[in-house]
Structure formats: C-alpha cells, structure tokens
Amino acid sequence: MTALVDAAIIGIGNEFRRDDGAGPAVVALLRERALARPLPPGTVLRECDGDPGRLIGLWENTGLAVVVDACFSSSPRPGRIHRWCPAADALSAPAARRHSTHGLGLVDTVRLAHSLGRGPGRLVVYAVEGADRSLGTGLTPSVAEAVRTLVACVEGEVVRHAGTALRGLPAEGS
Fold first, then answer.
1. Mean pLDDT for each consecutive 10-residue tract of the chain (174 residues)?
2. How many CB atoms lie within 10 A of CB 153?
3. Nearest to 70 by CA among 169, 165, 150, 2
4. Residue 115 CB neighbours (<10 A)
5. By the 8 A CB rule, do 102 and 63 touch?
C-alpha cells in the first residue's frame, strides 16, 4: 500500500450528545492550534459519525491514522484516557469489545478493514471515558480537561510518525 495521506487524525462522535463529542472536540482544537503551529505536512483532520464505511474511507491509504473517540463503561472514570494500537491478536480480546456508542463498534470496523485490505499503515486509537451522552452540547468538565491532554498526545503521535518517515525508519509498532 502506498500512503496517499501521511497521517489522518479522525475524531469520531456526535457533538450533540455531550461527552460523545470528545473526538470532534479534539479535531476542532487541533485545527485551531494548527493556525499558529502547523501539523506536519500531509496531515489531515477529519470528523466521522462512526459509520464503518465512512471511517474506513477516511483512514484508507494513510501511513498513520489516529482515531479519537469517547467510550462509556459500566464503571466509568470520566476523563480517563486509553491508548490502543490494534494488532491482529488484540482484535479477538474480550476487553476490546464494544465500548463504543456506534452501531458496529470500532473493533468490528478494524476487523472489517483488515479483512478487506483497507486499513491504514498504522492505527492508534485514543478513547476517553465519558460521563454523559444525553442530548445536548458541551463536554463535562473532566472530559473537557482530557481533550486538552488528548490534543497533545495526538499531536505527538503525528510528529513522531513524520520524524520516523523522514529518517526512513520503520514505523513504531511495525
């Protein structure tokens, strides 16, 4: 696969479902920061509602895809951030199942993309635990604080990826 886009940052969620809007909030803040401090060349910022076909289309032909989403567990710690680099063996792990608010779920979408040969070169997923997914806008305070941390984490992923590509080294986790 030849990457047409070096890196794609994809915020999944619905800004009208409170904390489910964490992914789009990260993308919006990265857009705003990029005006003063541009992201590496070849980086695109995208939003997605979680539809598997749209998500696969956004990360296909990318060297790196960084996906940011909210997750809601039965015993949440709102604002806690999880980082996941899906590997083939991790896709069958019970802990990786259905923590998404979206129909098919991210694990199932990653499996589908892998089986179709339409995954990114490398995938990194950040999920922040949310507290409120009711109708309305605005993140809860703990998730809003986590968004600022996520912006730095995601920016770091893309900068490291760009530096690795410039040196001609294999991508981290390859």
1. 77 97 98 94 96 95 96 91 78 45 74 91 96 96 98 96 71 53
2. 16
3. 150
4. 9
5. no
